[in-house]
Specification:
The chain is mainly alpha-helical and 166 residues long. The chain has a single domain, classed as Orthogonal Bundle (N-(1-d-carboxylethyl)-l-norvaline Dehydrogenase, domain 2). It has a two-stranded parallel ribbon. The longest helix has 29 residues. The chain is globular, with a radius of gyration of 18 Å. The termini are far apart. The model has no long low-confidence stretch (mean pLDDT 94).
Amino acid sequence: MAGGDAAALEEIAWVLAPIAAHVHHMGAPGAGHTAKLLNNFLNGVTLAATAEVMVAGKKAGLDLGRLLDVINSSSGVSFASLNRFPHIVRGDYLEGGLTGRLMTKDIALYVDLVGRLGVPSLNAAGPLASFGLAENLGYGDQISNRVVDAIGDVAGGVRVHDTTEG
């Protein structure tokens, strides 16, 4: 997601090629940042919501692999359910990505952006609360996927993976 002069972006495409599978020119300077905030907000919403659902599923005694199969073949499918939680339920949090603190920052920046645009942000409270909780429980500098552990902590110490497996 990049903004600025399209010709200049084309000239530096070789620099971006090793680090970006796709470069989307979004328009004027700042447009790439705007697109990033919009995308990261959706990422935060679906990650936080899927984390909550997986903790609830675990507490309900559901097989989380089967639950993911249902979600991923139904209307609840998301990037989080397809690409993150199949790993997380096996104890692999995919460490090294966007931290919880950075996720909180991006969601707060999204709220500021839509406020300036005059768009109501009716769905930001959930992910702000979820990632804020994670940060306050000490997960802020870990990958944002650890939000599931923060929700699990306040749900009685639930972990969505079998702690004897990893």
